[in-house]
Design goal:
The complex is a heterodimer of chains A (309) and B (301). Chain A is 36% helix and 19% strand. Chain A is α/β, with parallel strands linked by helices and 309 residues long. Chain A has one domain: TIM Barrel. In chain A, α2 packs parallel to α9. Chain B has seven helices and 15 strands. The radius of gyration of chain B is 20 Å and the shape is globular. The two termini of chain B are 35 Å apart. The relative contact order of chain B is 0.17. The chains are: A alpha/beta (309), B alpha+beta (301). At the A-B interface, α5 and α7 of A face β4 and α6 of B.
Protein backbone atom coordinates (compact mmCIF):
# COMPACT_ATOMS: atom_id res chain seq x y z
CA UNK A 1 0.00 0.00 0.00
CA UNK A 2 2.73 2.43 1.06
CA UNK A 3 4.77 1.42 -1.98
CA UNK A 4 1.81 2.07 -4.30
CA UNK A 5 1.24 5.47 -2.74
CA UNK A 6 4.89 6.33 -3.16
CA UNK A 7 4.81 5.24 -6.78
CA UNK A 8 1.81 7.45 -7.35
CA UNK A 9 3.41 10.37 -5.52
CA UNK A 10 6.57 10.16 -7.58
CA UNK A 11 4.54 9.95 -10.79
CA UNK A 12 2.72 13.14 -9.89
CA UNK A 13 5.76 14.83 -8.37
CA UNK A 14 8.88 13.40 -9.99
CA UNK A 15 12.17 13.82 -8.15
CA UNK A 16 15.22 14.74 -10.18
CA UNK A 17 18.70 15.71 -9.20
CA UNK A 18 19.33 19.44 -9.66
CA UNK A 19 20.68 20.11 -13.14
CA UNK A 20 23.75 21.92 -11.90
CA UNK A 21 24.66 19.17 -9.42
CA UNK A 22 27.97 17.45 -10.08
CA UNK A 23 28.17 14.40 -7.86
CA UNK A 24 31.38 12.48 -7.21
CA UNK A 25 30.67 9.58 -4.94
CA UNK A 26 31.89 6.43 -3.24
CA UNK A 27 30.43 3.80 -0.96
CA UNK A 28 31.34 3.05 2.61
CA UNK A 29 30.03 0.17 4.68
CA UNK A 30 29.81 0.05 8.44
CA UNK A 31 30.58 -3.65 8.58
CA UNK A 32 29.43 -5.16 11.87
CA UNK A 33 27.90 -8.60 11.44
CA UNK A 34 29.82 -10.62 8.90
CA UNK A 35 30.26 -13.38 11.48
CA UNK A 36 26.81 -14.30 10.19
CA UNK A 37 27.51 -16.27 7.02
CA UNK A 38 24.36 -15.02 5.29
CA UNK A 39 25.31 -11.40 5.85
CA UNK A 40 28.88 -12.03 4.75
CA UNK A 41 27.76 -13.71 1.52
CA UNK A 42 25.29 -10.92 0.78
CA UNK A 43 27.90 -8.23 1.37
CA UNK A 44 30.54 -10.06 -0.61
CA UNK A 45 28.24 -10.50 -3.61
CA UNK A 46 27.04 -6.93 -3.35
CA UNK A 47 30.60 -5.57 -3.41
CA UNK A 48 31.30 -7.55 -6.58
CA UNK A 49 28.08 -6.23 -8.12
CA UNK A 50 28.91 -2.67 -7.09
CA UNK A 51 32.29 -2.87 -8.77
CA UNK A 52 30.73 -4.37 -11.92
CA UNK A 53 28.38 -1.38 -12.16
CA UNK A 54 30.64 1.49 -11.11
CA UNK A 55 34.11 0.20 -11.91
CA UNK A 56 35.13 1.12 -8.36
CA UNK A 57 35.48 -0.77 -5.08
CA UNK A 58 33.33 -0.17 -2.06
CA UNK A 59 35.03 0.55 1.26
CA UNK A 60 34.16 -1.84 4.06
CA UNK A 61 35.15 -0.35 7.39
CA UNK A 62 35.16 -3.28 9.78
CA UNK A 63 35.06 -3.75 13.55
CA UNK A 64 37.75 -5.58 15.44
CA UNK A 65 37.13 -9.05 16.79
CA UNK A 66 37.58 -7.76 20.34
CA UNK A 67 34.82 -5.20 20.11
CA UNK A 68 32.25 -6.34 22.70
CA UNK A 69 29.40 -5.86 20.26
CA UNK A 70 31.09 -8.07 17.67
CA UNK A 71 32.19 -10.63 20.25
CA UNK A 72 28.59 -11.08 21.39
CA UNK A 73 27.57 -11.81 17.81
CA UNK A 74 30.55 -14.09 17.24
CA UNK A 75 29.51 -16.19 20.22
CA UNK A 76 25.98 -16.53 18.82
CA UNK A 77 27.25 -17.60 15.40
CA UNK A 78 30.09 -19.72 16.67
CA UNK A 79 32.65 -17.59 14.86
CA UNK A 80 36.23 -17.55 16.13
CA UNK A 81 38.50 -14.50 15.98
CA UNK A 82 40.57 -16.21 13.32
CA UNK A 83 37.47 -16.95 11.24
CA UNK A 84 36.37 -13.32 11.49
CA UNK A 85 39.80 -12.14 10.40
CA UNK A 86 39.73 -14.63 7.52
CA UNK A 87 36.34 -13.27 6.43
CA UNK A 88 37.76 -9.74 6.45
CA UNK A 89 40.73 -10.93 4.37
CA UNK A 90 38.29 -12.53 1.95
CA UNK A 91 36.29 -9.32 1.82
CA UNK A 92 39.44 -7.41 0.94
CA UNK A 93 39.45 -9.18 -2.44
CA UNK A 94 36.29 -7.32 -3.46
CA UNK A 95 36.39 -4.18 -1.27
CA UNK A 96 38.88 -1.95 0.50
CA UNK A 97 39.03 -2.58 4.23
CA UNK A 98 38.95 0.26 6.76
CA UNK A 99 38.41 0.57 10.50
CA UNK A 100 35.00 1.09 12.12
CA UNK A 101 35.12 1.93 15.85
CA UNK A 102 32.41 1.69 18.49
CA UNK A 103 33.40 2.77 22.00
CA UNK A 104 31.94 2.25 25.46
CA UNK A 105 32.30 3.49 29.02
CA UNK A 106 32.56 -0.12 30.03
CA UNK A 107 33.04 -2.73 27.35
CA UNK A 108 31.56 -5.45 29.55
CA UNK A 109 28.27 -3.59 29.70
CA UNK A 110 28.04 -2.77 26.01
CA UNK A 111 24.40 -3.81 25.80
CA UNK A 112 23.37 -0.82 27.96
CA UNK A 113 22.59 2.22 25.87
CA UNK A 114 23.97 4.55 28.54
CA UNK A 115 27.38 2.86 28.20
CA UNK A 116 27.65 3.86 24.54
CA UNK A 117 30.04 6.68 23.70
CA UNK A 118 28.30 8.81 21.12
CA UNK A 119 28.94 12.49 21.72
CA UNK A 120 29.47 14.73 24.75
CA UNK A 121 29.45 11.88 27.25
CA UNK A 122 32.72 10.09 26.81
CA UNK A 123 35.91 9.20 28.61
CA UNK A 124 39.30 9.74 26.98
CA UNK A 125 40.76 6.85 28.95
CA UNK A 126 38.20 4.34 27.66
CA UNK A 127 38.33 5.75 24.15
CA UNK A 128 42.12 5.56 23.94
CA UNK A 129 42.31 2.08 25.41
CA UNK A 130 39.64 0.60 23.14
CA UNK A 131 41.01 2.36 20.07
CA UNK A 132 44.46 1.00 20.72
CA UNK A 133 43.17 -2.52 21.46
CA UNK A 134 41.20 -2.51 18.21
CA UNK A 135 44.27 -1.52 16.19
CA UNK A 136 46.33 -4.20 17.95
CA UNK A 137 43.77 -6.72 16.78
CA UNK A 138 44.09 -5.55 13.19
CA UNK A 139 47.86 -5.89 13.49
CA UNK A 140 47.71 -9.31 15.11
CA UNK A 141 45.60 -10.60 12.23
CA UNK A 142 47.66 -8.82 9.55
CA UNK A 143 44.65 -6.89 8.46
CA UNK A 144 45.32 -3.62 6.68
CA UNK A 145 42.87 -0.86 7.52
CA UNK A 146 44.37 1.21 4.71
CA UNK A 147 44.33 4.32 6.93
CA UNK A 148 40.58 4.66 6.40
CA UNK A 149 38.11 5.25 9.23
CA UNK A 150 34.35 5.58 9.72
CA UNK A 151 32.89 6.26 13.16
CA UNK A 152 30.39 3.95 14.80
CA UNK A 153 27.23 5.83 15.80
CA UNK A 154 28.94 8.69 13.91
CA UNK A 155 30.95 9.41 17.05
CA UNK A 156 33.71 11.90 16.40
CA UNK A 157 35.53 14.53 18.39
CA UNK A 158 38.88 16.25 18.83
CA UNK A 159 40.33 13.37 20.84
CA UNK A 160 39.35 10.70 18.34
CA UNK A 161 40.71 12.85 15.51
CA UNK A 162 44.02 13.05 17.37
CA UNK A 163 44.12 9.31 17.93
CA UNK A 164 43.43 8.70 14.24
CA UNK A 165 46.10 11.13 13.12
CA UNK A 166 48.68 9.74 15.53
CA UNK A 167 47.91 6.23 14.25
CA UNK A 168 48.50 7.38 10.68
CA UNK A 169 44.96 7.42 9.37
CA UNK A 170 44.62 9.49 6.22
CA UNK A 171 40.86 9.58 5.49
CA UNK A 172 37.81 9.71 7.69
CA UNK A 173 34.19 9.29 6.63
CA UNK A 174 32.44 10.23 9.88
CA UNK A 175 31.20 13.75 9.18
CA UNK A 176 27.75 14.28 7.75
CA UNK A 177 25.01 16.85 7.47
CA UNK A 178 22.27 14.30 7.16
CA UNK A 179 19.95 14.41 10.17
CA UNK A 180 20.28 10.68 10.81
CA UNK A 181 24.07 10.80 10.82
CA UNK A 182 24.62 14.00 12.76
CA UNK A 183 27.22 14.10 15.46
CA UNK A 184 27.20 17.23 17.58
CA UNK A 185 30.97 17.78 17.49
CA UNK A 186 31.13 17.24 13.73
CA UNK A 187 28.20 19.51 13.04
CA UNK A 188 29.57 22.20 15.34
CA UNK A 189 32.91 22.02 13.54
CA UNK A 190 31.35 22.20 10.08
CA UNK A 191 29.19 25.16 11.06
CA UNK A 192 32.16 26.97 12.60
CA UNK A 193 34.14 26.50 9.39
CA UNK A 194 31.18 27.08 7.10
CA UNK A 195 31.63 23.71 5.44
CA UNK A 196 28.83 22.81 3.10
CA UNK A 197 27.40 19.44 2.17
CA UNK A 198 29.76 17.60 -0.12
CA UNK A 199 32.70 19.86 0.56
CA UNK A 200 35.87 17.92 1.37
CA UNK A 201 38.15 19.32 4.03
CA UNK A 202 41.35 18.62 5.84
CA UNK A 203 41.58 19.00 9.61
CA UNK A 204 44.89 19.95 11.10
CA UNK A 205 44.89 19.27 14.81
CA UNK A 206 47.54 21.73 15.94
CA UNK A 207 50.87 20.13 16.89
CA UNK A 208 49.53 16.67 16.01
CA UNK A 209 48.89 16.42 12.28
CA UNK A 210 46.28 16.26 9.56
CA UNK A 211 43.47 14.03 8.38
CA UNK A 212 41.19 14.38 5.36
CA UNK A 213 37.44 14.32 5.59
CA UNK A 214 35.01 13.08 2.96
CA UNK A 215 31.45 13.60 4.14
CA UNK A 216 28.66 11.08 4.25
CA UNK A 217 25.70 12.04 2.16
CA UNK A 218 22.84 9.63 2.61
CA UNK A 219 22.21 6.01 3.42
CA UNK A 220 21.71 3.52 0.67
CA UNK A 221 20.31 0.38 2.07
CA UNK A 222 16.73 -0.48 1.42
CA UNK A 223 14.49 1.69 -0.71
CA UNK A 224 13.33 0.47 -4.11
CA UNK A 225 12.68 4.05 -5.25
CA UNK A 226 15.46 6.04 -6.84
CA UNK A 227 13.37 9.09 -6.03
CA UNK A 228 13.75 8.42 -2.30
CA UNK A 229 17.51 8.81 -2.58
CA UNK A 230 17.14 11.93 -4.72
CA UNK A 231 14.71 13.48 -2.26
CA UNK A 232 17.02 12.78 0.69
CA UNK A 233 20.03 14.08 -1.17
CA UNK A 234 18.26 17.27 -2.21
CA UNK A 235 17.39 17.91 1.42
CA UNK A 236 21.04 18.31 2.40
CA UNK A 237 22.59 19.88 -0.70
CA UNK A 238 23.50 23.53 -0.37
CA UNK A 239 22.48 25.55 -3.45
CA UNK A 240 25.74 27.49 -3.34
CA UNK A 241 27.78 24.30 -3.46
CA UNK A 242 26.52 22.12 -6.31
CA UNK A 243 29.83 20.30 -6.67
CA UNK A 244 29.23 17.51 -4.20
CA UNK A 245 31.79 14.91 -3.19
CA UNK A 246 30.68 12.36 -0.64
CA UNK A 247 29.85 8.87 0.39
CA UNK A 248 26.75 6.76 0.37
CA UNK A 249 26.69 4.46 3.35
CA UNK A 250 25.05 1.38 4.72
CA UNK A 251 25.42 -1.23 7.40
CA UNK A 252 26.12 -4.72 6.21
CA UNK A 253 23.10 -6.05 8.09
CA UNK A 254 20.40 -3.74 6.74
CA UNK A 255 21.52 -3.71 3.13
CA UNK A 256 18.98 -4.58 0.46
CA UNK A 257 21.40 -5.64 -2.28
CA UNK A 258 18.99 -5.65 -5.21
CA UNK A 259 17.57 -2.20 -4.45
CA UNK A 260 20.98 -0.71 -3.71
CA UNK A 261 22.44 -2.11 -6.94
CA UNK A 262 19.47 -0.77 -8.89
CA UNK A 263 20.11 2.60 -7.35
CA UNK A 264 23.74 2.59 -8.45
CA UNK A 265 22.81 1.36 -11.92
CA UNK A 266 20.47 4.33 -12.33
CA UNK A 267 23.01 6.72 -10.83
CA UNK A 268 25.76 5.50 -13.13
CA UNK A 269 23.69 6.43 -16.15
CA UNK A 270 23.51 10.08 -15.16
CA UNK A 271 26.13 12.23 -16.88
CA UNK A 272 26.60 14.42 -13.81
CA UNK A 273 27.64 11.51 -11.60
CA UNK A 274 31.04 9.86 -11.27
CA UNK A 275 32.46 7.33 -8.82
CA UNK A 276 35.66 7.03 -6.85
CA UNK A 277 37.12 4.52 -4.46
CA UNK A 278 39.79 4.26 -1.77
CA UNK A 279 42.56 3.74 -4.30
CA UNK A 280 41.65 7.02 -5.99
CA UNK A 281 41.87 8.79 -2.65
CA UNK A 282 45.00 7.13 -1.35
CA UNK A 283 46.92 7.43 -4.62
CA UNK A 284 45.84 11.04 -5.06
CA UNK A 285 44.29 10.29 -8.44
CA UNK A 286 41.17 12.21 -7.66
CA UNK A 287 41.16 15.89 -8.37
CA UNK A 288 39.46 17.09 -5.19
CA UNK A 289 40.15 20.18 -3.14
CA UNK A 290 40.39 19.54 0.57
CA UNK A 291 39.75 22.85 2.28
CA UNK A 292 42.26 23.35 5.10
CA UNK A 293 40.84 23.81 8.60
CA UNK A 294 42.55 23.97 11.95
CA UNK A 295 41.47 22.52 15.27
CA UNK A 296 43.31 24.42 18.01
CA UNK A 297 45.21 22.22 20.40
CA UNK A 298 43.53 23.84 23.39
CA UNK A 299 40.35 21.98 22.42
CA UNK A 300 42.17 18.86 23.60
CA UNK A 301 43.14 20.35 26.92
CA UNK A 302 41.52 21.93 29.87
CA UNK A 303 43.71 23.84 32.31
CA UNK A 304 41.01 23.75 34.95
CA UNK A 305 41.41 19.99 35.08
CA UNK A 306 45.18 19.74 35.17
CA UNK A 307 45.23 18.82 38.85
CA UNK A 308 42.68 16.02 38.63
CA UNK A 309 43.96 14.17 35.60
CA UNK B 1 34.88 20.84 71.58
CA UNK B 2 33.25 17.99 73.46
CA UNK B 3 33.08 15.66 70.46
CA UNK B 4 35.45 14.04 68.00
CA UNK B 5 35.09 13.80 64.23
CA UNK B 6 36.25 10.82 62.20
CA UNK B 7 35.56 8.64 59.18
CA UNK B 8 32.88 6.14 60.09
CA UNK B 9 34.01 2.55 60.00
CA UNK B 10 31.06 0.75 58.47
CA UNK B 11 32.31 -2.52 59.87
CA UNK B 12 32.11 -1.36 63.47
CA UNK B 13 29.39 -3.14 65.38
CA UNK B 14 26.06 -1.38 65.69
CA UNK B 15 27.03 1.62 63.53
CA UNK B 16 24.15 0.96 61.12
CA UNK B 17 21.68 1.28 63.99
CA UNK B 18 23.33 4.46 65.26
CA UNK B 19 23.20 6.14 61.84
CA UNK B 20 19.61 5.04 61.28
CA UNK B 21 18.51 6.35 64.69
CA UNK B 22 20.23 9.71 64.28
CA UNK B 23 18.84 10.32 60.79
CA UNK B 24 15.31 9.18 61.56
CA UNK B 25 15.21 11.25 64.75
CA UNK B 26 16.62 14.34 63.06
CA UNK B 27 14.42 14.23 59.99
CA UNK B 28 11.36 12.60 61.52
CA UNK B 29 11.62 9.66 59.15
CA UNK B 30 11.25 5.90 59.43
CA UNK B 31 13.87 4.83 56.93
CA UNK B 32 15.53 1.45 57.11
CA UNK B 33 19.33 1.20 57.17
CA UNK B 34 19.17 -0.45 53.75
CA UNK B 35 17.26 2.50 52.30
CA UNK B 36 19.64 5.02 53.88
CA UNK B 37 22.68 3.19 52.57
CA UNK B 38 21.19 2.83 49.10
CA UNK B 39 20.65 6.60 48.94
CA UNK B 40 23.98 7.68 50.37
CA UNK B 41 26.61 5.09 49.60
CA UNK B 42 27.81 4.12 46.14
CA UNK B 43 30.67 1.77 45.52
CA UNK B 44 32.20 3.57 42.59
CA UNK B 45 34.63 0.78 41.76
CA UNK B 46 32.20 0.16 38.89
CA UNK B 47 33.84 3.16 37.22
CA UNK B 48 37.25 2.68 38.81
CA UNK B 49 36.76 5.68 41.09
CA UNK B 50 36.91 6.03 44.90
CA UNK B 51 33.97 4.85 46.93
CA UNK B 52 31.62 6.90 49.05
CA UNK B 53 32.37 7.44 52.76
CA UNK B 54 30.66 8.71 55.88
CA UNK B 55 31.93 11.20 58.43
CA UNK B 56 30.61 11.11 61.99
CA UNK B 57 30.80 13.27 65.09
CA UNK B 58 31.04 11.20 68.26
CA UNK B 59 30.50 12.08 71.87
CA UNK B 60 32.05 9.07 73.52
CA UNK B 61 30.53 6.19 71.61
CA UNK B 62 27.38 8.14 70.77
CA UNK B 63 26.93 9.31 67.17
CA UNK B 64 25.88 12.96 67.38
CA UNK B 65 26.58 14.16 63.84
CA UNK B 66 26.58 12.57 60.43
CA UNK B 67 27.25 13.38 56.79
CA UNK B 68 27.51 11.10 53.78
CA UNK B 69 29.98 11.86 51.00
CA UNK B 70 28.57 10.07 47.99
CA UNK B 71 31.01 9.46 45.17
CA UNK B 72 30.01 10.55 41.70
CA UNK B 73 32.07 11.29 38.60
CA UNK B 74 31.45 14.14 36.23
CA UNK B 75 32.78 14.36 32.72
CA UNK B 76 34.40 17.40 31.12
CA UNK B 77 35.91 17.09 27.66
CA UNK B 78 36.37 13.37 28.22
CA UNK B 79 38.12 13.80 31.57
CA UNK B 80 36.53 11.94 34.45
CA UNK B 81 36.38 14.16 37.52
CA UNK B 82 35.65 12.40 40.75
CA UNK B 83 33.40 14.52 42.94
CA UNK B 84 31.43 13.95 46.12
CA UNK B 85 27.88 14.83 46.97
CA UNK B 86 27.48 15.50 50.68
CA UNK B 87 24.05 14.53 51.78
CA UNK B 88 21.99 13.45 54.76
CA UNK B 89 23.70 15.99 57.01
CA UNK B 90 22.35 15.53 60.52
CA UNK B 91 23.21 16.84 63.98
CA UNK B 92 21.66 15.54 67.18
CA UNK B 93 19.39 18.17 68.71
CA UNK B 94 21.47 18.20 71.91
CA UNK B 95 24.54 19.22 69.92
CA UNK B 96 23.13 22.02 67.79
CA UNK B 97 24.96 25.33 67.90
CA UNK B 98 28.26 23.64 68.68
CA UNK B 99 29.67 23.79 65.17
CA UNK B 100 29.18 20.08 64.48
CA UNK B 101 27.89 20.61 60.92
CA UNK B 102 30.86 22.74 59.73
CA UNK B 103 33.30 20.42 61.51
CA UNK B 104 31.90 17.40 59.68
CA UNK B 105 32.19 19.13 56.31
CA UNK B 106 35.68 20.48 57.02
CA UNK B 107 36.85 17.03 58.09
CA UNK B 108 35.37 15.48 54.94
CA UNK B 109 37.04 18.05 52.76
CA UNK B 110 40.46 17.53 54.33
CA UNK B 111 40.00 13.79 53.85
CA UNK B 112 39.24 14.40 50.17
CA UNK B 113 42.30 16.63 49.83
CA UNK B 114 44.41 13.85 51.28
CA UNK B 115 42.91 11.40 48.79
CA UNK B 116 44.05 13.70 45.95
CA UNK B 117 42.63 14.23 42.45
CA UNK B 118 39.17 15.10 43.70
CA UNK B 119 37.32 17.82 41.78
CA UNK B 120 34.79 19.32 44.16
CA UNK B 121 32.13 18.57 46.73
CA UNK B 122 28.60 19.63 46.01
CA UNK B 123 25.28 19.77 47.71
CA UNK B 124 21.69 20.74 47.08
CA UNK B 125 20.84 22.28 50.45
CA UNK B 126 17.37 22.99 51.74
CA UNK B 127 16.27 26.20 53.41
CA UNK B 128 17.73 25.09 56.76
CA UNK B 129 21.19 23.98 55.66
CA UNK B 130 21.54 26.63 52.95
CA UNK B 131 22.75 29.43 55.27
CA UNK B 132 25.45 27.17 56.72
CA UNK B 133 26.94 26.54 53.29
CA UNK B 134 26.95 30.27 52.72
CA UNK B 135 28.92 30.79 55.91
CA UNK B 136 31.34 28.10 54.80
CA UNK B 137 32.01 30.03 51.57
CA UNK B 138 30.49 27.49 49.23
CA UNK B 139 29.79 28.85 45.78
CA UNK B 140 26.06 29.13 45.24
CA UNK B 141 25.63 28.31 41.56
CA UNK B 142 21.94 28.93 41.45
CA UNK B 143 18.74 27.10 40.82
CA UNK B 144 17.52 24.52 38.38
CA UNK B 145 15.19 25.36 35.51
CA UNK B 146 12.01 23.46 34.86
CA UNK B 147 9.93 22.41 31.87
CA UNK B 148 6.75 20.40 32.19
CA UNK B 149 5.92 18.82 28.87
CA UNK B 150 2.21 18.06 28.75
CA UNK B 151 1.29 15.32 26.35
CA UNK B 152 -1.78 16.82 24.72
CA UNK B 153 -1.99 17.77 21.02
CA UNK B 154 -1.26 21.50 21.27
CA UNK B 155 0.61 21.76 24.55
CA UNK B 156 3.12 19.04 23.69
CA UNK B 157 4.71 20.80 20.72
CA UNK B 158 4.59 24.20 22.36
CA UNK B 159 7.11 23.05 24.97
CA UNK B 160 9.91 22.49 22.47
CA UNK B 161 12.04 24.96 20.64
CA UNK B 162 12.16 24.44 16.89
CA UNK B 163 15.49 22.80 16.09
CA UNK B 164 17.27 24.30 13.09
CA UNK B 165 19.91 22.81 10.82
CA UNK B 166 22.60 25.03 12.31
CA UNK B 167 21.73 24.37 15.95
CA UNK B 168 24.15 22.19 17.87
CA UNK B 169 24.28 20.69 21.31
CA UNK B 170 27.99 20.28 21.86
CA UNK B 171 30.36 21.49 24.53
CA UNK B 172 33.92 20.64 25.40
CA UNK B 173 33.88 22.80 28.52
CA UNK B 174 30.61 21.81 30.19
CA UNK B 175 30.34 19.44 33.13
CA UNK B 176 28.24 16.41 32.23
CA UNK B 177 26.76 14.09 34.78
CA UNK B 178 27.80 10.51 34.23
CA UNK B 179 24.45 8.94 33.44
CA UNK B 180 25.99 5.55 32.92
CA UNK B 181 27.19 5.62 36.51
CA UNK B 182 24.07 7.25 37.95
CA UNK B 183 21.73 4.73 36.35
CA UNK B 184 23.83 1.94 37.82
CA UNK B 185 23.73 3.54 41.27
CA UNK B 186 19.99 4.20 41.18
CA UNK B 187 19.15 0.76 39.84
CA UNK B 188 20.93 -0.75 42.82
CA UNK B 189 18.55 1.05 45.21
CA UNK B 190 15.77 -1.34 46.23
CA UNK B 191 12.47 -0.49 44.52
CA UNK B 192 14.04 2.34 42.52
CA UNK B 193 11.99 1.58 39.40
CA UNK B 194 14.32 3.43 37.03
CA UNK B 195 13.23 3.48 33.41
CA UNK B 196 15.82 3.95 30.67
CA UNK B 197 14.33 4.95 27.33
CA UNK B 198 16.41 5.06 24.15
CA UNK B 199 15.44 6.28 20.72
CA UNK B 200 17.68 7.05 17.74
CA UNK B 201 20.68 7.80 19.95
CA UNK B 202 18.76 9.90 22.46
CA UNK B 203 18.48 8.50 25.96
CA UNK B 204 16.15 9.67 28.72
CA UNK B 205 16.06 8.02 32.11
CA UNK B 206 14.00 8.61 35.18
CA UNK B 207 11.07 7.49 37.26
CA UNK B 208 7.48 6.92 36.35
CA UNK B 209 5.22 8.38 39.00
CA UNK B 210 1.52 8.62 39.61
CA UNK B 211 0.09 12.00 40.46
CA UNK B 212 -3.33 13.22 41.55
CA UNK B 213 -4.49 16.70 40.64
CA UNK B 214 -8.00 18.17 40.61
CA UNK B 215 -9.61 14.77 41.01
CA UNK B 216 -7.56 13.42 38.12
CA UNK B 217 -4.95 10.75 38.40
CA UNK B 218 -2.24 10.49 35.76
CA UNK B 219 1.26 9.18 35.01
CA UNK B 220 4.11 11.59 34.99
CA UNK B 221 7.72 10.94 34.18
CA UNK B 222 10.36 12.61 36.29
CA UNK B 223 13.56 12.82 34.27
CA UNK B 224 16.77 12.03 36.18
CA UNK B 225 19.11 12.55 33.28
CA UNK B 226 19.47 12.39 29.54
CA UNK B 227 22.05 11.99 26.82
CA UNK B 228 20.96 13.90 23.74
CA UNK B 229 22.98 12.95 20.70
CA UNK B 230 20.30 13.73 18.14
CA UNK B 231 18.57 16.93 19.25
CA UNK B 232 16.76 17.09 15.92
CA UNK B 233 14.78 14.04 17.02
CA UNK B 234 14.47 14.99 20.69
CA UNK B 235 10.83 16.00 20.49
CA UNK B 236 9.85 12.75 18.83
CA UNK B 237 11.89 10.82 21.41
CA UNK B 238 9.85 12.43 24.20
CA UNK B 239 6.65 11.68 22.30
CA UNK B 240 7.60 8.03 21.98
CA UNK B 241 8.43 7.90 25.68
CA UNK B 242 4.96 9.27 26.49
CA UNK B 243 3.32 6.76 24.22
CA UNK B 244 5.21 3.77 25.50
CA UNK B 245 4.64 4.56 29.18
CA UNK B 246 1.24 6.26 28.85
CA UNK B 247 2.59 9.47 30.33
CA UNK B 248 0.66 12.74 30.53
CA UNK B 249 3.45 14.95 31.89
CA UNK B 250 7.22 14.72 31.51
CA UNK B 251 9.10 16.88 33.95
CA UNK B 252 12.53 18.13 32.94
CA UNK B 253 14.63 19.87 35.58
CA UNK B 254 18.14 20.96 34.66
CA UNK B 255 20.63 23.38 36.16
CA UNK B 256 19.98 26.83 34.78
CA UNK B 257 23.41 26.88 33.04
CA UNK B 258 22.73 23.58 31.25
CA UNK B 259 22.79 23.50 27.47
CA UNK B 260 19.62 21.41 27.61
CA UNK B 261 17.71 24.66 27.92
CA UNK B 262 18.28 25.11 24.17
CA UNK B 263 15.89 22.24 23.56
CA UNK B 264 12.90 23.98 25.08
CA UNK B 265 10.94 27.08 24.30
CA UNK B 266 10.32 28.46 27.79
CA UNK B 267 12.27 26.91 30.62
CA UNK B 268 11.37 28.63 33.88
CA UNK B 269 13.58 29.00 36.90
CA UNK B 270 12.36 26.56 39.56
CA UNK B 271 12.89 28.88 42.49
CA UNK B 272 11.45 26.37 44.92
CA UNK B 273 14.03 23.80 43.91
CA UNK B 274 17.21 23.39 45.89
CA UNK B 275 20.17 25.37 44.52
CA UNK B 276 23.49 23.81 43.61
CA UNK B 277 26.32 24.68 45.98
CA UNK B 278 29.91 23.73 45.31
CA UNK B 279 33.18 23.77 47.23
CA UNK B 280 36.27 23.29 45.09
CA UNK B 281 38.78 20.71 46.29
CA UNK B 282 41.39 20.34 43.55
CA UNK B 283 39.95 22.30 40.64
CA UNK B 284 39.14 25.94 40.15
CA UNK B 285 35.83 26.37 38.42
CA UNK B 286 35.70 28.84 35.54
CA UNK B 287 33.88 32.11 36.14
CA UNK B 288 30.84 30.90 34.21
CA UNK B 289 30.72 27.14 34.50
CA UNK B 290 28.19 25.10 32.56
CA UNK B 291 26.63 22.31 34.57
CA UNK B 292 24.60 19.90 32.53
CA UNK B 293 23.08 18.53 35.70
CA UNK B 294 19.64 17.06 36.20
CA UNK B 295 17.93 15.68 39.33
CA UNK B 296 19.71 12.34 38.93
CA UNK B 297 22.76 13.82 40.65
CA UNK B 298 20.77 14.28 43.85
CA UNK B 299 20.91 11.59 46.50
CA UNK B 300 17.16 11.40 46.93
CA UNK B 301 16.17 11.10 43.27
Amino acid sequence: MKQDLKRLLYTVRPQRLPRNLVLTTGYVFHTEEVYNDDIFRRLFDFCKGYTAITGKQAICTVMSGISPKVRAGMRLFNCSEQKLADLYHQLSSVATIGYHGHFYFNADLHQRHEAEIRSNNFSIVQLTEQFSNDLEWFKKHELNHNDLYAGGWWFMNQHLLSLLIKAGFKYDFSFSKHRFFLNQFSLDFMIEHEIKTGECFEIEVETIGKIREVQNLIGSSSSAFFEDYVRNLKRIIHPAHPKVVGMFNSHDYDLHPANALNFFTTLKQLPQVSFFDAADLLDGRLNIDFRPTVLPVHRLQNDMLASVR
Amino acid sequence: MDYTVSIIDLKSEGIDGKITRLLNTTFGLRMSWEAIKANTYYDNSFAGSPSSFYVGAFKGSELVGFVAFKSHDFLVNGVVINCFHHCFVATASSMRGKGVFPSLLAFGKSHLKAMGKIGFVYGVPNQFSGPVFKKLNYKNLGYFSKVNVINTPILFSSAFREWHADDTLFSDTAFFQNDYQLIDAKQKSPGSNIIVFEDLGNLIWGKLRRKKKGGMSFNYFSVGGMIVNKPYFFKSTVKKLCKQHKVLVVQFLFHHTSMFKKLFKRPVLAIHSEPLVVDEVEISLPSEPIFNFMPGIKDHF
